[in-house]
């Protein structure tokens, strides 16, 4: 994520519930399991710019492994059956291909090799960290998800082999409660990670547990792309994901907990997200999210990590009957809308407002443009106590019906963006109601963290993608779930009433994956 200035905030550890979805026991008659995530303040290497020896690298990683061991013990005592640690948690940041090498281990493929490193530590050389992690899982009888570095020698004649003769991967490893290595996933969508290679083929890795069935695996930047994040859900039927991340918060649309909650809401899944804790890098925000509840942590003041443990409902694998109905309704409405609107869009000019009986076309003087997270949005100001507004950008038109308190205190704006995100090439369609940083229009789109206006609102737009993530961010970085989301006629709707904190951002963050250009291979090689 791009870095932005975010002022320090008081800590947030919130456990929120929403109207419950129907959950059904699917594993040994149980309805719930206990999950843990740890937001880790990684012990960093003060000399990351120079290549260490293997022993120096091991000593560095052992400092973080000692913290992991303590958190595993604590989580296990609280009944946790699975624990997730963050991306880069064993060594930190700012490595290149050479300086990261002593930290890497040749991790075998558990789909090919059955190996319990704790019981057989000498089967593979240079796997000291894998061995320690295996014993950590075994001794505490817990499933363990850890991010680390993997190195694999190139096969003979490999035309894609790097010049140094090896692949280096940002990797998640999973151990079962006996210490057996059961899964390994290589991160697909790298974000300026020059130390690592992008896998030649996207990996869709799923592991089974004795307590909750199947989990899919993804890492950080992956969550913004179709593969593997969305395809694990839509093509492979995964209901829950483990998500190590090193996410730099970016207001007003992409703070960690904001998008984590939105992702779990749209797909009605369980998401176990563990972030780094480095406020000086804008890194904080972890959580355990279910379709109907959230336990999350956001703290820009503390210098310590944080363990979260929560009871998680087991979602029935029969998503179509039990959890898939809202999603199916959205898909059917989406397909119908696309078929009906192709001809209409062909006739419509970009930025031409869509006529709507309840929404007057804004006067030309009320429309303004501004940058929000590097993209050029079209805005209209939200100035009255209540009203109906619309704004268009290219072929996306966004609508807002609202009622708010204290309209004279804060300036808000309704923004629309339909285009490729600058610098990455992924395609966005976004409708966003944002609090402006000041009384001037040129502050709309800047990051703010506090608000006093309570708004009841319905936000909707004529999206061309079915993947629209509903986000609600309140004052002091608290997340809310919408009262409802739905497709109706030509639009995707989100409604929220009776919030207890002021609104910072309400957004429908649409990702039109098929219109992405370039690739993260290009992004990763950009300096």
From TrEMBL:
Q: What class of enzyme is it?
A: hydrolase
Enumerate the GO terms in the molecular function aspect.
biotinidase activity
Quote the catalytic activity from the record: biocytin + H2O = biotin + L-lysine
Q: Which residues form the active site?
A: 87 (proton acceptor), 187 (proton donor), 220 (nucleophile)
Q: Which InterPro entries match?
A: Biotinidase-like_euk (IPR012101), Biotinidase/VNN (IPR040154), C-N_Hydrolase (IPR003010), C-N_Hydrolase_sf (IPR036526), Vanin_C (IPR043957)
Q: Any signal peptide, and if so, which residues?
A: 1-28
Q: Which UniProt keywords apply?
A: Glycoprotein, Hydrolase, Signal
Which residues are in the CN hydrolase domain? Answer: 44-314
EC number(s) recorded for this UniProt protein: 3.5.1.12
Family in the record: Belongs to the carbon-nitrogen hydrolase superfamily. BTD/VNN family.
Briefly state the protein's biological role. Answer: Catalytic release of biotin from biocytin, the product of biotin-dependent carboxylases degradation.
Q: What is this protein called?
A: Biotinidase
Instruction: State the organism of origin.
Output: Callorhinchus milii (Ghost shark)
